[in-house]
Structures are given as C-alpha cells and as structure tokens.
Amino acid sequence: MRAILLGIDIGTSSCKITAFDQTGQVLATQTESYPTYYPAKGYAEQDVSEWWRAVCRGIQGLLQQGLIPKEIVGIGVAGQSWTCLPVDRRGEPLRRAMIWLDRRAGQQVTMLKSRVGEDPLLQLSGNPVDPAYVTPKILWLQENEPETYEKAYKFLQSNSYIVYKLTDKFSQDYSQGYGYHFFDISRGNWNEQLAAELGVSLDLMPPLYHCHEIVGVLTTRAAAEIGLRPGIPVVSGGLDAACSTLGAGVIHPGQTQEQGGQAGGMSIAMTEAKIHPKLILGYHVLPDCWLLQGGTVGGAGTLKWFMEQFGHFEVSLAEKAGKNVFAIMDEEAAQIPPGSAGLIFLPYMFGERSPIWNSKARGVFFGLSFEKTRAHMIRALMEGVGFSLWHNLKTAEEISVQAKELHSVGGASNSSVWTQLKADITGKTIKVPFSDQATTLGAAILAGVGTGVYRNFSEAVAQTVKMKKTYQPDPGCHQRYQDYYQLYLEVYEKLKGCYETLEKFALDGE
After folding, report:
1. Which DSSP letter does residue 45 get?
2. 432, β-bridge pairs
3. Is 100 in a helix, a strand, or coil?
4. Rounded to 5 degrees, what angle do the CA atoms 326, 331, 336 make?
5. 102 CA to centre of own chain
6. Are the CB atoms for 178 and 214 separated by under 8 Å?
C-alpha cells in the first residue's frame, strides 16, 4: 500500500488541501475560499468556523477525485501568521480571529514601547513591535474586550486551531512563536518575566511542539465530519511561509525562498538567530534552524487587484482566446522595457510590513503620463513587487546575511516575465520548483518526517522537491534596475510625511 500525506494550508484568502505520494507527486488538490471581514478601519478578521468548513469541503473534494482514505498515513497543517484567536476550554472560538492584516492595535504598540522599551522586546523576540503581531492584539483585547479576554482558555494560531479540530489537542508550534514578543527566539521558550510584566498569563499559551511532532490522531468526531478514518497522526505543522520554504527545498544556510503569493516576501535559512530590527525572525519548521524573513503586503495580490478593477479588456481577451487572464497580462508586460518607461509603483496596498513598517503607507504610481498604457502599469506593478523583495534582501545584508539562490513559490512564480524581472532586479539566480504546491508540500513533508515516512528532512527534500526552471539575471538589466530602485526608495522617503496627512484627510471624510 502506498503512503499518502495530506498537507492543509489555511491561507489568507482560501484553504488549500493537497494529497501527495512519497515522491511529492500531487495526487489530488482542492481549494476552498472564505471571506475576510473589515468591520472598521484597520480591522481584518476571519470566521474560523469558515476555515473548518473549508477543510471539510476540501477533503471531501479530494475523496471525490478518487483519494483512498486508508492510504493516508499523516496530516500536516500550515497556516497564515500572527493570528489572534482566543478559545474556551472546549476549543470554541470566543470571537472572529484577528488576522495578520489587522492593524487596530496601534495604541498598544505605543504602550509596549513606552512600558517595556522597543529594544528589550526586539532582543528577546527578534522582531519589531508592530500592530500586525499577536502581542499588541492580545493587549487590545485586554483593554477593549475584557469579557472575551477573561473567558479565554488558550490563544491559538490558524494551524493550531485546525490541529485542535482534528485531534482535540491544544498546541503551539515553534515556527509561529515569533508572533509573541514574550517568546525567546534564541532559546525557543516563553519568557515568564516579560509575560507577567505585560499582564499575560502563560497558562493561555498551549504546549510547544516541534513542527514535525505528532500532537494527536484524528478523532472519531473529526473523521466523521471530513470523511476520513479515525486514528491518522496529525503533526503540529507551522507557519505557511516556513512550510512553503521547506516545500521549495530550502533547508541549508543561505538558501532563500521567494514568496509570490497574495502577499510577497522572502525567507533566508540560517543556523543561528540573527536579529535585524526591520526584518522578521522566526524558527524554520526544521529544528535548530531559523528564517530571516521579509514580509510585504504587495505580492501577486497587487496584480489581482489591478485585473479586478481595471483589467476588463484583458479579461474579455482571455475569454475570447481561451487563455488565462494573467497569461494575457504577462504578454502585455513583456512588450514594455525594463523600468516601464519611467513608471514606478509603490506596492503598499494595505500599509506595509518589512522593512519600512508603515501602516499608513499606500500604493502609488509615480510617472504616469498620456503615453502610458495598461501594459506599462502592469509591468510597473510587477517591478514594484520586485523592488520590495530587493529592499528586504538588501536589508538582510546589513547584518551579513547573504541570500544565495532564490527558490520561488506562489502564483507569481508561474509568470516567466515576473520571475525573470525579479532575477534581473535582485541579480540572483531564481529556481522554480516543479510543483506549485510548496506550502501544502511543506506541511505534508512535516507529516512524513513525523510519522517516519522519511528518515530526515534531507531525505524528504531529495525525494519530493524537483526544479522545473531556472532564471539567470541579465547583468545589463540588473544595472539598469539599480537606478530605478534608488528612485523607488527616494519616492517613498519623500512621500512618508504625506501618508500621515492623507490618513487625516481620509478620517475627516468618514
């Protein structure tokens, strides 16, 4: 009997579930979407019951594709970062989850900086103090929803909530620990003194698990809901970006994952915890390995936004030609020279995370003129995301962390135009894995290592990760892009103060 591994990914816009065999071949895959709610300015929430329903529908969809339940030997779960989800003793959510896009806790960030100091928090957790992290959100709950906070038994992350639904066991994996500023990023434990200083009881934190460690097995109740057999081992899983980094084959120092999903970013593998105040530091899903990360709001979502708002011509053309609309947009962008004929885009569509950490920043086209077309704007969007990637890589170099080759994952990696211009902007070789299911593959690999399907992570990657295409940077284009990159940085710096004014105008108009 063959061994099938399931990878579940609770992403920002949808849940993806993929079944793999031991060689990493995709046997079946299913995606189920769910909404994000924006009840007030700066708020971003999701109903976790909709996550669970998406998991149930997704697995049932796999079964309809011919998946044989008795062949499934392990389940791994990846999830979006920085989720603040209080649950009661029965694991029932006490409110909708505040997700990573939620930036309501600005006042709590100010309080944290004044009460504890930003540097002590940075040195312990390895991460800057920003409203996107879990710590300020917990403090926001204490202040604004005290009844909810008092009822909380545990705080869960996106993947640990699904693991609980599968096993009835509470867990906290190491790779998601970086969302809490009282998590010691070097030692991998909770800092009781700092938690007490913030008024957060460590009893609210579930037990820590290595990402490949088995938390429990599929319960009879959960098995009946999703249509599988009870008793399947479920591992702790981990952060989606870390799982996709593993699924891209990044397990050695200097190897780097480039994220081209809804959001963008990069993850550089390291064997020690190196801290940069403008970047993100977390555990990899491998033991004794860290990831220096850059997380940006602008990723493939920028192009999706443009298509939905302005791409009616491309949508119509794609329908007539029987092609994917993004393939049409690729063809248009390919006709425009590097630099988009003097058009620059700042991809700060919902504030920005690293390395500028500015929740007030917004997207900007700089250089529009009558001769510019949608094609120029499409390429400028792609280049803006490429510049944000380069900004993070250059920031990492400030602490002597050098990215070697990049392994590109996510929807944008399917675009040869976009991936090539990223190679040209960064001057880095970019490899694209054969499977574009890197996140669910990473989750499945964790289940495979945890259940003994693979002896170790090196064996798992050797068996499952194959590269389908390599992009070499063009030296001439790289040099040309450096001038545009400097202007990209300068435009932001000159607009930084204007963002404050713009937000005031927007608030006055509400």
Report:
1. E
2. 469
3. coil
4. 120
5. 14
6. no
Here the tokens at position 300 are 């493939």
Cβ–Cβ under 8 Å, residues 410 and 260:
yes
Chain-centre distance for alpha carbon 36: 15
- For 436-460, b/e burial (b = at least 16 CB within 10 A) is bbbbbbbbbbbbbbbbebbeebeeb
Give dist(CA 205, CA 181) in Å, integer: 13
Under a CB-based contact definition with an 8 Å cutoff, are residues 380 and 365 in contact?
yes
Give the model confidence (pLDDT) of 345-370 as tens digits: 999 998 998 999 998 999 999 999 99
Among 206, 210, 213, smallest CA distance to 233 is for 213
**3-class secondary-structure state, position 415:** coil
Find where tokens 């801290």 sit: 275
247-274 pLDDT, tens per residue? 999 999 999 999 988 889 999 999 999 9
Q: Which residue is associated with the tokens 């329908």?
A: 319
Token pair for 270 = 């390291």
Contact 233, 75 (CB under 8 A): yes
Q: CA-based angle 389:361:115, to the nearest 5?
A: 100
| Tokens, residue 208 | 């820590």
Tokens of 65: 């594709």
Can you state the angle between helices 325-334 and 312-321, rounded to 10 degrees? 110
Two structure tokens written together for 220: 């009879």
How far is residue 154 from each of residues 151, 183, 219, 485, measured CA to CA in Å? 9, 16, 20, 45
**pTM for this one?**
0.91
230 and 75 Cβ atoms separated by less than 8 Å: no
What SS3 state is found at 297? coil
